[in-house]
Amino acid sequence: MKVERENFLTLVQTTESKALRHYFFGERAASKIPDVPEDTPKRPIKSAAVVGAGTMGGGIAMNLPTPEYRSSSWR
After folding, report:
1. Which of 13, 18, 38, 50 would be 61's cystine partner, CB 3.0–4.6 Å?
2. Residue 12 to residues 18, 22, 23, 64: CA-CA distances in angstroms?
C-alpha cells in the first residue's frame, strides 16, 4: 500500500494527469450553458445536413445515419 500511495502521489502531479483532469472538467463545463435553466425543453432532431465532405464533414456524416436521423451531405 505504501508503494502504491507513493506512486499515485508522484503520478497525480504529472503534466499528463493535470491535462486529463482539465479535459475531464472542461468537457462537463462545456455542456452547461450559463443562464439556460435545466428544465428548458429540448427540441427533437429529425434531420441534419452536412455541407462539405472533407475530413470533418465526412466524419460527421459518417456518424449521423442512425435509425432516428436522416442525413444528407453536399460537396
Report:
1. 50
2. 7, 13, 15, 37
Inter-residue contact 73 to 61 (CB < 8 Å)? yes
Per-residue pLDDT of 16-74, as tens digits, reads: 999 999 999 999 988 888 888 888 898 887 777 788 878 888 888 787 766 666 655 55
pTM score: 0.45
**Residue 46 CB partners (closer than 8 Å, separation 6+):** 69, 70
Q: What angle do CA 2, 13, 3 make, to 5 degrees?
A: 10
